[in-house]
Amino acid sequence: MADNAPAHGSSTVVATTNNSSATGGGSSSARQSSSSSGAQISVHATRVLADGTCKNEELSYVSAKAVGCGSFGTVYSAKLSSDNMQVAIKKVLQDRRFKNRELSIMKRLCHPSVVQLLYYFYSSGSNAKDADVYLNLVMDFVPENVYKQIRYYHNQRTSMPLIFVKLYTYQLFRALNYIHKDNICHRDIKPQNLLCDPSTGQLKLCDFGSAKQLSPEESNVAYICSRYYRAPELILCAVHYTCAIDVWSSGCVLGELLLNNPLFPGESGVDQLVEIIKILGTPNREQIDDMNPQAAQQFRFPPVRPHPWSRYFRSKTPASVISLITAILEFSPQKRVKPIIALNHEFFKELRDPNTKLPNGAPLPYRDLFELKADEMTTMLADAEKQPNGGAGTGGVNPFPMINGQVKLTESQSSVTSSSRPQPTSSSSPPNLSTEEKVKRYISMLQQKDAENSTSTENNM
């Protein structure tokens, strides 16, 4: 498929207008009836089930207000008539020349850290002169986004509670690990595209308008991703990039969560690279070749020494988060931390403590954090082992010596959920471990940290 995605993704979610019509393929008149809370609209829609299969059925909802709009779409909130469930509806213009990539990708996704596509339908314009066709994506509704949260704390002249920084970053890496296993690259990670609910601590990645399933044989547009979060290889006009561009963007988001301001606030594409070099220093020849081998002839880089992260952030910033940012924001894409390995980082240790609470006293969303399934880990763990430093990033700790040589599982310890707390023991590694066995051992290693935290908490009570 040709890569015709825009440089900035569409906004997050829409309700159809009073005169809209909808159908799964052509168009048919939408039926409306009066309601105390607004007009009820009925459309022929396609329901997307959890296993990715679809079925046609009638969908009725009560229209509500617009909650966001952008260059490529409008988002509305609405309530389904069947169960009063609040949903978000994103309405985008459907170009008849192209298959909608966002729809085809979202139909495949089902994960607690990714916004869920529930239904979709097509509608015509709001008046007789508008002959355009619109695609409407019905998704679960999340009340806030990370951008609004950052602005709130910025205006309050205070820092975001560190527990939220950890929760949001951890769930973002869970989402990336899930979509990257199929080489689906989001290509527009930014605070506006991270929906969140501060009352529960949940986060969901949304807006797949710029997403694409990357193929090594296929070139891609370099002018993609919002500027502040754009990976340096994109600025250097690379067209054969990887999902590591999402990892870079996530590091920029993490920095913004800590600073309440963008980490690299460039005023143009070139200035964006200058902002990056101010902190990371001038990339060496090997790093330039890793980003884009042709860049050495096209760009001239001034000699700049790296600026230590510990001086850039507040004095009370934990050393563990400095370690994580260092592992993420690396010029060489293949040397950035892999999402599956980032989940094991020391910065997230507090999340595994069963007594950790949200600022409102509510428990953490443990199911969304730690119910790791083998099918979302196998591919990514095998890929991480092939990367420099076991995918742990610059300065990170390679987990594979532990996985391959120091953990032994019994059958009763091979559960993939955090509900069980196995006790791995040291052992010599059998030769030629299968990927499945390595997945089990990695999960067990994470669970052992849970058990250690739980024991330490009980001893201190």
Features:
Transferase(Phosphotransferase), domain 1, globular, Phosphorylase Kinase, domain 1, 461 residues, alpha+beta, single chain, 3-stranded antiparallel β-sheet, 14 strands, 31% helix
Structural commentary:
There is one protein chain. The protein has 461 residues and is α+β, with helices and mostly antiparallel strands. The protein has three domains: 22-140, Phosphorylase Kinase, domain 1 (2-Layer Sandwich); 144-359, Transferase(Phosphotransferase), domain 1 (Orthogonal Bundle); 399-460, no CATH class. It is built from 15 helices and 14 strands. The strands form three sheets. A six-stranded antiparallel beta barrel has the order 3-4-6-7-9-8. Strands 10-12-13 form a three-stranded antiparallel sheet. Strand 5 (66-70) and strand 6 (73-80) form a beta hairpin. The protein is globular, with a radius of gyration of 23 Å. The N and C termini lie far apart (59 Å).
